[in-house]
Design a protein that fits this description.
- With 418 residues, the protein is α+β, with helices and mostly antiparallel strands.
- The protein has two domains: 6-52 and 105-259 and 301-415, Outer membrane efflux proteins (OEP) (Up-down Bundle), CATH 1.20.1600; 53-104 and 262-296, no CATH class.
- It has helices spanning 17-24, 28-49, 106-173, 180-214, 236-257, 301-368, 374-409, and strands at 6-8, 11-13, 54-69, 88-104, 262-275, 282-295.
- The chain has a four-stranded antiparallel β-sheet, with no helix packed on it. A two-stranded antiparallel ribbon has the order 1-2.
- A hairpin with a 6-residue loop joins strand 5 (262-275) and strand 6.
- The longest helix has 68 residues, at 106-173.
- The protein starts with 5 loop residues before the first strand and ends in a 9-residue tail after the last helix.
Length: 418
């Protein structure tokens, strides 16, 4: 159905299904997934940054209860006999530059590889979130279409039965039919009104869900046309589970790498100021260092525990991956078979409508001339409505299957429907 009178960014425009799909990608809930991708990118940058040198400025003021050297002093540096100031002071100001650079720390390289996998996993999760929202929009719109077409069918049946009620009223008035016949028809009209009211309640719930997903307030479903059925050879949930398993494997490798030796360059450039304790004159000494540091962990029980925990998490990720593969394979095959059954149901329902309407036409004439009971006539009216409801329900089921297939295969519904 064509939608009119919908507020869209401050103006009234006709909406399309693609407008709704695009709107679903602009809601705060989906922005959380985009922020997760941004966060994973930053974590990847942080892991890469750990491989770079670290530079820093430092400054410290030290106070001692006895004279302390500004830096190690060789014996020939000061001529004490000549009254030179000794580089010892009770109060020392130190300031300068420190640096640290990893030469080879395997754990950092493995951590970066894990961060890259988690970044890809976040992107997959973002895509899953978007496709799930798109699938929900299509499913809800198809449900709204189902309700609207069923409401129209109920209105048509009610109008036809109301005409029969008028004809029967004339018969009752002239004594050709008992008044109980009117009660039978009136009960059917009341039942149709109740069905219509129940559909209105469901309709309001669906409109609320669409608004929550898209931020758009509809008053009718939008048209949808299937461009091509979604297809694919891989399942997006399996890809996400694979990234989890790969990241868990890297975590095991990282924990194991903590046992490896590390090689780093460290150093500092330090300026040291004070007041010589023997002359009370200002003294200054610089003190610089560069060192190549090799570290080898000998004993740390937490390393074993951390590695064991990582291995358990890896096994959990592997089992989850295997189960996801089974679930998705079963679901994909079921949906492929189900859509064939639904298409067959659509054909059968269309034929059933044609046959029911033909029989209803005969029944209307028969009840009018008194050759059919009111109960039998009302049954034919009900058969037409039931056949129409089956057709509309089958069409809705087909759209739901299409939406679900697009979500599991990772297909953007903007290219599937228009």
């Amino acid at each position: 159905m064509v939608l009119c009178g919908v507020f869209w960014y401050g103006s009234v425009q006709a909406m399309t299904i693609n407008d709704l799909l695009d709107a679903a990608a602009r809601q705060p809930g989906y922005e959380v997934s985009e922020l997760s991708v941004k966060e994973s990118n930053l974590q990847k940058e942080r892991a890469t940054g750990a491989l770079f040198p670290k530079l820093g400025l430092f400054g410290r003021f030290e106070s001692y209860n006895s004279p302390t050297n500004l830096r190690p002093m060789p014996p020939t540096e000061v001529n004490v006999q000549a009254g030179d100031s000794l580089p010892f002071s009770r109060k020392i100001l130190r300031y300068g530059l420190s640096f640290n650079a990893p030469v080879y720390v395997r754990e950092l390289y493995v951590l970066r590889q894990k961060a890259l996998l988690l970044r890809d996993k976040a992107e997959t999760d973002r895509q899953l979130d978007l496709l799930g929202r798109q699938a929900s929009v299509v499913s809800l719109n198809s449900a709204l279409t189902y309700l609207q077409t069923l409401e129209a069918a109920i209105d048509a049946r009610r109008a036809a039965i109301a005409k029969t009620f008028e004809d029967m009223s004339l018969k009752v008035k002239i004594g050709r039919a008992p008044e109980a016949e009117l009660l039978k028809i009136q009960k059917t009209l009341n039942d149709l009104d109740q069905q219509r009211n129940d559909l209105d309640i469901k309709r309001l719930d669906i409109l609320r869900e669409i608004r929550a997903l898209t931020g758009v307030e509809l008053d009718a479903p939008v048209d949808m046309t299937l461009v091509h059925p979604p297809d694919g050879t891989t399942y997006l949930l399996v890809a996400a589970a694979q990234y989890n398993a790969d990241a868990a494997a890297k975590e095991v490798d990282r924990r194991r790498s903590a046992r490896w030796p590390t090689l780093a360059v460290t150093g500092f450039i330090s300026s040291n100021d004070g007041e010589a304790y023997n002359t009370d004159r200002h003294i200054y000494r610089s003190y610089n260092e560069i060192a190549l540091v090799l570290k080898f962990p000998l004993f740390d029980r937490t390393l074993s525990s951390n590695e064991s925990i990582a291995r358990v998490q890896l096994e959990k990720a592997k089992r989850h991956l295997e189960q996801t593969r089974l679930d998705m394979s079963a679901l994909g095959e079921t949906l492929n078979r189900k859509i064939q059954v639904v298409e067959k149901s659509i054909g059968l329902a269309e034929k059933s409508i044609t046959d029911s309407q033909t029989l209803l036409t005969v029944a209307r004439v028969a009840v009018r001339v008194g050759r059919m009971t009111t109960e039998d006539y009302l049954r034919y009216e009900s058969d037409v409505l039931a056949a129409q409801a089956s057709l509309y329900r089958a069409r809705q089921q087909k759209w739901q299957i299409v939406a679900q297939q697009a979500a599991i295969y990772g297909t953007d519904l903007n290219g599937v429907v228009k």
